[in-house]
Amino acid sequence: MSRTHSKLYTLTLDNTSANDTCCTEIELPPWPASENQLPCLEHVTNLATVDVMGHITKIKAIDTTSAIWDYSPGDDVNRVLDGCIDVIATIRTLAIKLECGFQTTLKLTLHNNTRWGSAFNMLERALKLRSAINLFVVHADQLYGPITTQQTNGHITKKIPWTDFSLNDADWALVEDAKAMLADSNCVLHYFSSEKQPTLWRALPALENLQTEWEDKLFKHRWALFHAAIRAGLAKLIKYYTKFDHKPVYILALFLHPYFKLHYIQIAWGGPEEQKAEFDKGNFDVKDWVDEARKIVENVADDNTSFTSEFDRHRRTLITQNHDDEWQAELRHYLKSVPADVDADTDIVEWWS
């Protein structure tokens, strides 16, 4: 099998080693997996969010049934962020206990690492129910007794009251900050969740915007408690982002979107002027990314082997001897035009059709 007889171009898969092995096994000389195996970008964003959560909560401390019922936010071992109460684990545990023990309209969304965006949704719902939660935990001990009673050899060793799950104004401020930080990645998740439009062209701008938002927070005092968490999330993003240099399809997707074309690359990454400025400083590793992107586009446009037979290519050559000049002129015209009827959310398929 070769590209001449196959329409296989890219594969988008979850980021597991088994999928890497699969792509390596089907790899053909014209189809390098390093270029054409694409990561699930929702999964990448979620992995970065999970790494952030790993620094601001101890969700694993309440992973089992016994741990959930024995969890007490006030215990020193359960503190996070330089001694702060673990507001995320507190809210999640409270939600589980309410759901298990009571028929109540007080519903909190549960966070789970495999449910993408659930951490943000849980905090958002908790903030909406803040008054109800505060009121409930204040009176629950009087109405229902302690949330958990621990026994050893038939003797009561500890009672965990509902009031242990009380959150003061400073705690709720942490909830608000955590929600605001996770809102950045939650927004990106929605970029890649469309069922009716292609989203590949969003990859570079969306992940770069997320990096920018999190990097900005590293320089603001408000987020000082979260700096380690943010760095962990950025490290995960960069791990996958650096692989995009070897995947030309992301450049092609941007190029084909009439709002971005190659202008985005020039602004975000730099062109010949930026390269020259860096050369003058002695940094000779900097690329002219506009030129690099143009080469990728031209190589694909000049590739007549992907979806046509040998006879098709021969006949086309006979009909148009100046084929190269034609597509290059069309390319130049497309790059120079700036259509006024498009924006960043334009449906690329509808526009081209």
3D architecture notes:
The strands form two sheets. The protein has a two-stranded parallel sheet with strand order 1-2. A two-stranded antiparallel ribbon has the order 3-4. The two termini are 31 Å apart. It has 353 residues and is mainly alpha-helical. Helix content is 55%, strand content 5%. It has 17 helices and four strands. Helix 3 (41-56) runs antiparallel to helix 10, helix 8 (169-191) packs antiparallel against helix 9 and helix 9 (203-217) packs antiparallel against helix 10.
Strand order of the largest sheet: 1-2
The helix/strand order is: EHHEHHHHHEEHHHHHHHHHH
Helical percentage? 55-70%
Q: Which term fits the overall shape? A: elongated
Question: What is the straight-line distance between the termini?
Answer: 31 Å
Number of helices: 17
Give the biggest sheet.
Answer: 2 strands, parallel
Category by helix and strand content: mainly alpha
Poorly predicted regions = none
User: Average pLDDT value?
Assistant: 83
Strands, count: 4
- Relative strand content: under 5%
* Cα-atom radius of gyration: 27 Å
SSE layout and pairings?
Blueprint: E1 11-13, H1 17-26, H2 33-36, E2 37-39, H3 41-56, H4 65-70, H5 87-101, H6 118-128, H7 130-144, E3 148-152, E4 155-160, H8 169-191, H9 203-217, H10 227-241, H11 249-256, H12 263-268, H13 272-280, H14 289-301, H15 310-319, H16 323-336, H17 348-352
Parallel strand pairs: 1-2
Antiparallel strand pairs: 3-4
